[in-house]
């Protein structure tokens, strides 16, 4: 069973220049890599999946209150573009205001869901989307309380692999694992 891991900010978080985009390109590259790693670790340990650019600057992730430093919106956008470039972010809208932080790829989520279903004897059984996301049986799983649209994308990947069938009835969504 997956447990919520303890999270600690890296040393850079308490280093004021970390919050200012560095002019030297080599240093900037390292800075973007460090921020990318921090975002992925933060989102994973807090089981978060969606970033809202409008709210990001006030998040404790991008605003170190003890240093009275926060990243500019432009720098946050630059870091998010780096995450997108490396396959760890997918925009949810054309304006690039909200996106999924993919600390696991959609295919990895699909594998995790399928492994859970098989390990828990759910083969040839219908599970509701609600039970997968919020049920007691999944409370210790990393996909518990994940974004519903992201969950549906993972289930769609399983469907394409012929490992599951997504079922929609009366506005409710279920999945049958094979």
Produce a short descriptive summary:
Its main location: cytoplasm. The protein is an alpha+beta fold and 178 residues long. The chain has helices at residues 25-45, 53-56, 73-85, 106-119, 129-134, 148-160; strands spanning 50-52, 63-64, 69-70, 89-91, 98-101, 126-128, 164-169, 172-177.
What are the key terms here?
178 residues; alpha+beta; Arc Repressor Mutant, subunit A; 2 domains; three-stranded antiparallel sheet; 8 strands; protein homodimerization activity
Question: How many discrete domains?
Answer: 2
Q: Order of strands side by side in the largest beta sheet?
A: 1-5-4
Question: Structural class, from helix and strand content?
Answer: alpha+beta
Helix content: 25-40%
- How many helices does DSSP assign? 6
The percent range for strand residues is 15-25%
Q: What is the gyration radius calculated from CA atoms? A: 19 Å
Low-confidence stretches: none
Mean pLDDT: 93
Span between termini: 22 Å
What name goes with the CATH superfamily of the largest domain? Answer: "Winged helix" DNA-binding domain. Chain C. Domain 1
* Major pleated sheet: 3 strands, antiparallel
Q: Give the beta-strand count.
A: 8
- From the 3D structure, determine the CATH topology of the largest domain: Arc Repressor Mutant, subunit A
Sequence of secondary-structure elements = HEHEEHEEHEHHEE
Estimate the global geometry from the Cα principal axes.
elongated
* CATH architectural arrangement of the largest domain: Orthogonal Bundle
The top-level CATH class of the largest domain is: Mainly Alpha
GO molecular function: protein homodimerization activity; structural molecule activity
Keywords: Cytoplasm, Protein transport, Transport
Protein name: Vacuolar protein-sorting-associated protein 25
Organism: Hypsibius exemplaris
